[in-house]
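quick one, 323 residues, struct below
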Amino acid sequence: MTALLSVRGLRTVFPTRRGPLAACDGVDLDIHTGEALGVVGESGSGKSVTFLSVLGLVRPPGRIEAGEILFDGTDLARLPPSSLRALRGRAMALAMQDALSALNPAFTIGTQIVETILTHRLARSPSEARDQAVALLRRVGIPSPERRLDDYPHQFSGGMRQRAMIAIALAGQPRLLVADEPTTALDVTIRAQVLDLIDELREETGLAVAMITHDLGVVAERCARVMVMYAGQVVETGPTAEVIAAPRHPYTRGLMASLPSLEDPDRPLHAIPGQVPDLARVDAGCRFRNRCPLAIDACAQPVALRAVAPGRFSRCLRAEEVT
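---
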């Protein structure tokens, strides 16, 4: 089955005083229609930069240095900016973590949703677009949407702003939604409502979702596959249940050991020792080896992402020994 989004060898570089910094380096990934892919890793691992690259939103002087980004067979890395803009928001959409920064404070919520609908010609008139905007706000759980449509972002609570931004992202009826920490500011009830909405859209419309998050609980509950990133690279990927039950990379195992357990609430939590390497000064070897209990001399050589089981991949020479 052909993937809706297929990325191969993606390398996005930012110049620094210490030299070029590859925020994502050699990233491969696939997302199929109707699939939710969880993307996890600590801050600075390259999760957001990878998908900003996919959407063509990396700001200069950052640039895509290498790689292929196929969306429905079209290489986005080689599209002219005007063609990419036409796809972004319509075929692909982004719901960002910081709704307060993402929403324009000078315009009402309704104006921002209606503008998206009209820009992509999804309504025949402004009044029809407004009706669609009301329906979107209602669907993401905004009470009294007809009235709240004329409010400004500062009149919404943090959680309501987050839901309004998701409504804007969905306004173009995209085929791919990049959700970057979409539930950060939401309480438990509203978080479940937003995640249920995304699941419904996946089932009803075939929406593909890249769920970027620190919350492994969300990934375990909502995503069939997970991709674990560390220091700009994919270190493990596979079916979520299998990866969580039996990690095949020491970093993934470290992430799991740092989480509390409902089954064993008295279990001590273990932080991963050491620090993430400086990405402007990394060598060709395994980037986790300075923190890894299984590191050997051979880890100083390039380590490829390799198959360790059907549908399972790990960037570790000793993946079969990780338990």
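The chain has a mean pLDDT of 90.
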